[in-house]
Structure formats: C-alpha cells, structure tokens
Amino acid sequence: MAFEKIQLPAGGEKITVNADNSLNVPDEPIIPFIEGDGIGVDVTPAMKIAVDAAVAKAYGGERKIHWMEVYAGEKATTIYDADTWLPEETLRAVQEYVVSIKGPLTTPVSGGIRSLNVALRQKLDLYVCERPVRWFKGVPTPVKKPQDVDMVIFRENSEDIYAGVEWKAGSAEADKVIEFLTKEMGVTNIRFTDECGIGVKPVSKEGTQRLVRKAIQYAIDNDRESVTLVHKGNIMKFTEGAFKNWGYEVAVEAFGAEPLDGGPWHAFDNPNTGKRIVIKDVIADAMLQQVLLRPEEYDVIATLNLNGDYLSDALAAQVGGIGIAPGANRSDAVGMFEATHGTAPKYAGQDKVNPGSLILSAEMMLRYMGWTEAADLILQGVENAIAKGEVTYDFHRVMENAKLLKCSEFGEAVAANM
Ligand SMILES: NC(=O)C1=CN([C@@H]2O[C@H](COP(=O)(O)OP(=O)(O)OC[C@H]3O[C@@H](n4cnc5c(N)ncnc54)[C@H](OP(=O)(O)O)[C@@H]3O)[C@@H](O)[C@H]2O)C=CC1
Ligand SMILES: O=C(O)CCC(=O)C(=O)O
Ligand SMILES: [Mg+2]
User: Fold this and answer.
1) 48, 75, 201, 232: the active-site residue
2) From the CA of 200, how far away is ligand 3's center (Å)?
3) Domain architecture of the chain: domains with CATH
4) Centroid of ligand 3 to alpha carbon of 413 (angstroms)
5) What is the pTM of this model?
C-alpha cells in the first residue's frame, strides 16, 4: 500500500526477513529514520554523515543506504495534522522496512499517547531494549576505572508499569478499582483511599522468558561470562520476584543450566566456546551500588522495564554520560535503533550536543544488518576522534586541552577519523 506523506527514496530496496528471522539485506537497503524532536534536528544529520562515510569507506560504493524519512512526534503534527503524533503509516513503514533508526521524541504534555517512544515499542512489540555500556578511551568520567564497565543491558520493553495501566487520583475509575480492591479482594493496606492514584504492574511469564532468552543467547553468541537478573523481588514478589524465578527457569529449560553450589545461581557451558556462563541475580537497589563498586563482576544484565530505564542512565554516567549511550529496540526481526537520551529541549537546534549516542546506535544497526566492516569503522572513528580530544560540549567542559566541536563537526570528525 502506498504511503500518503512518506516519500520513497529514488533508489534502494526493502530488507526482508526469512522464516528463521534472519535478514536479507540488499546492497542498497532503504532505511526509515525518524528525525526526532528537540535535539533530533542536530543529532540525526550528524549520525547520517558518520554512517554514510563508514558505508562508503567500507564498501567502496558497492553498498549504500537510501534514507527514507518517516514522521513521529512534533514533526508529524506539522506534516499530518495537529493531533497526529504517531501516524499509522510510520508504524507500517518501520515494520515493513524491518530496520530503522530514530531520534528522541518528546512525551506530549497532553493528548492520548503517554509516551511516543513507549507507544512505538509496544505497537511494534519491540520487546528487547538492548543498551550496551562501555568506555571509550579518553572519555571523561566520574569513576576511577571506567574501563571496568563493559555491560549490556537487556531491558524488558513491553510490560511493567510502562504498560500505562493507571488511573488518576479522584477519578471514577481509580475509585472503582479501589472499591474492588478493598471490598472484593480483601485489601486493607491502601493507606489513604481518597484521592489516591492507582497503577498496575503487569509482568508475565511469556514476556519475561522471551527477554531473558535473548539475553542468554546474546551471552552465548558474544562469549560473555554471566547474565545477571536484576529485580526487586523481595518487595514485589509476584512481579519482580516472578521475573527472577522465570529467568532461572528459562536458563534451565532452554539452555540446560544447573544450580551452582546448590543455587540459586546457575551455570552452563557455552556451546560455542565451552566456557562457563553463570546466571545470577541481584536485587535492584543493591545493583546500583554494585555496578559502581565492582563493575567488573557484571556482564549481561536482564531486567524489567523500569529498572532497565534507571540502570541504563546510571551506567551511562559511569562511562561519560547519556550523550554517548546507544540502544536498540527489537522484536524477533524488526529493529529500531535509538539513542538512550531524550530531546534535551534547551539545546535544540543549537548544533551543540553530542551525537555519539545516535552514531553508536547506528553502529549497532549496521552490525545487526551484518555490515560489520562499516560498524567497525564507526567505532574506530568515534574512538579516534575522542582520543584526539575532538569532542562536543559535554565532554569538553570536563576535559583539559580538548577541542570543542559542534554536533555536526563531531559527525564529520567521526567520518574523518575512520
Ligand atoms: N527515547 C527517547 O526518545 C527519550 C525521550 N525522552 C524525552 O525527552 C524529553 C526531555 O527529557 P529529559 O529528562 O530532560 O532528558 P534528556 O535526556 O533529554 O536530557 C537530560 C540532560 O542530559 C544531557 N544530554 C541529553 N542528551 C545529550 C546529548 N546528546 N549530548 C550531551 N548531553 C546530553 C543534558 O545534560 P546537561 O544539561 O548537563 O548538559 C540534558 O540536559 C522528555 O520529553 C522525555 O520524555 C527522554 C528519554 C528518552
Ligand atoms: O519516552 C520517554 O519519554 C522516556 C523513555 C526513556 O526514558 C527511555 O527510553 O530510556
Ligand atoms: Mg530513560
């Protein structure tokens, strides 16, 4: 079906998906992108500069990305109409073209959609939010040994309190739910039943296990030593506690893990390398201090939606901040790559912020497409630019003798340093 507002690029083809969810990536794929609100106008063009340069250098003209702009957020309201934040054809394009990339989107202050970012993930069932956290030499950080931080967060992306099942204090709906809980479910410990907001936290076995399975498979494929299930199961027994139990269960049933020293930790041998992979769990508050004090003990992390949101920004700070923290939202085949940071409105349009987060998200995208040579060049470009002290304001303000670059100039520096 044709699109109404989305313009197809002059050339290029669709990426397609095989029955086993592997991708067929043509030499000239069409990649949809959402520019993003706020600093999206700054970081998205800088990302495209770096990616186009990496692809050109890696494949000498034999491969090329054809970018196709699709709309969401404030830009969609100007292209479609004032109430259209997430057009149906954007969802269709992202699904049909399989691999896409997006800038940050503002959560509208009013209107039906709670968060466009969350809505995109839920509508496309992008249930894995993968956020790798590693340090690049030369990046200023608040910790003494940032090189010890090398973790990959697998954040469950479709459930938990992000499902948005909640009712405003004083509404008829909230009152009705409170009445049901107190009168029919025997709940006696809602402290103040008047003017009380109510939220529901759904966490399912299927939702948990499909996420944990991906995290363990990642550990196998990438020769990682451990997968840590992060939860607050001591307090939220039937949601976060169940996440932990179902996580161990999938390790046993799908990967043959066995209890380690009587449990609860488990382990199994990586079928590719023969090395042991440990499955362990840590309670979420303790985890926030563990990753600061003993980061070398943590590798792949599998966690619920809200814990993953907190943990990914906290860990990003340890390696330089969210200006350089990348991410991917994935279903079994569809991948939408996006920065960890938001729209940083006070910097919008100033060509100032760090595009590193979106550039490194594009690096994940290229690797997902199997274009590893181009992905490696992106890493090289980022590493070399930073090592030379060519950085944006966020790093510059805490570095000595560095050269202050604009956002677009950092994109060009990545391209020049491959
Ligand atoms: N996935 C998404 O699209 C996300 C969207 N959002 C949305 O973004 C909006 C703003 O959220 P907010 O909480 O302010 O968080 P932001 O991530 O937008 O900004 C917080 C601070 O982080 C720093 N920062 C963010 N991005 C960069 C960058 N590229 N380079 C350097 N520094 C950066 C800035 O710090 P400093 O001021 O110290 O320089 C900035 O003020 C909200 O509407 C929120 O809902 C939020 C998170 C994710
Ligand atoms: O959608 C939002 O506004 C916030 C999303 C977010 O914080 C994240 O994805 O890390
Ligand atoms: Mg966040």
Assistant:
1) 232
2) 20
3) 1-140+323-417 (3.40.718.10), 141-151+206-319 (3.40.718.10), 166-199 (no CATH)
4) 27
5) 0.95
The ipTM is 0.97
Count of CA atoms in the C-beta half-sphere (13 A) of 227? 33
Q: Is 354 annotated as a binding residue?
A: yes
Q: Does ligand 2 lie within 6 Å of residue 115's CB atom?
A: yes
pLDDT in tens, 186-196: 999 999 999 99
Which residues neighbour 133 within 8 Å (Cβ) at sequence distance 6 or greater?
149, 150, 151, 152, 153, 312, 315, 316, 318, 319, 325
- Per-residue pLDDT reduced to its tens digit, 251-267: 999 999 999 999 899 99
Mind listing the pLDDT tens digit for each residue in 17-28? 999 999 999 999
Task: Give 149-171 pLDDT, tens digit per residue.
Answer: 999 999 999 999 988 899 999 99
Nearest CA to ligand 1 atom 3: 104
| Alpha helices (H) in 180-333, listed in sequence order | 205-221, 242-255, 284-293, 305-318
